[in-house]
Amino acid sequence: MGTIKVAPSILASDFSRLGEEIQAVIDAGADWIHVDVMDGHFTPNITIGPPVVASIRRVCSVPLDVHLMISDPESFIDDFVQAGADIISFHIETTNHPLRLIQKIKDAGCKAGVVLNPGTSQDEIEYIADEVDMVLIMTVNPGFGGQAFIPEMLEKIKYVRGMIGDRDLEVDGGIDDRTAAEVVAAGANVLVSGSYIYNHTSYFNAIESIRDAEG
Ligand code: DX5
Ligand code: ZN
Questions:
Q1: What is the pLDDT of residues 42-94, one digit of tens each?
Q2: Cα–Cα distance between 25 and 123 in angstroms, integer?
Q3: Which end of the chain, N or C, is surrounded by fewer C-beta atoms within 10 Å?
Q4: What is the arithmetic mean of pLDDT over 19-34?
Q5: Range of the domain at 100
Q6: Contact 140 CB / ligand 1 (< 6 Å)
Q7: Number of domains into which the chain is organized
Q8: Is residue 12 within 6 Å of ligand 1 at its C-beta?
Q9: Ligand 2 centroid – CA 172 distance (Å)
């Protein structure tokens, strides 16, 4: 596989200093900034919405990877496009019309990603996989940072890598220097990591240790 991209999740950052926390991981080598949008309905937690994403955009010099964990994503695509998202990913569990949603995201000039919960089979995206720019495989149940990696997802990563050729395969949840090696060996190339990076004494060392998982 090609190069590993590391996407720090700001969910684990100090929100009272969000701009500095974003700049610090970019200085430490972050490839993308991963933004977790939760609505308290699809997920048992509420995080941030379009106004905060727009503020992040102003201080973020790398691609903004917006992970929508919300019901009715169709109603909010325009808001996140205007806020400055580069990549918008939605959960397959949240829409009856995934192809229409993918087209809406692409027509707005963004890259489109589709996300699978741990309990959702790769079969659910079989007929849409050719249309997306990225597949995101959740390696924890969405809602919170700091949860334990679910090892059964390694098989799903291998399967989806076989479905999507060399397009981006992102993983999200419980990624540290150890699980990074496992997901990369299975076929992932974009690694989201929140608590491992933001709890580390050196953001640079944390990001490098994930990138080095490539071997
Ligand atoms: C979980 C979010 C993740 C989360 C990852 O619902 O989608 O992006 O922030 O956090 P860690 O790396 O701590 O598991
Ligand atoms: Zn996420």
A1: 999 999 999 999 999 999 999 999 999 999 999 999 999 999 999 999 999 99
A2: 35
A3: C
A4: 98
A5: 5-214
A6: yes
A7: 1
A8: yes
A9: 6
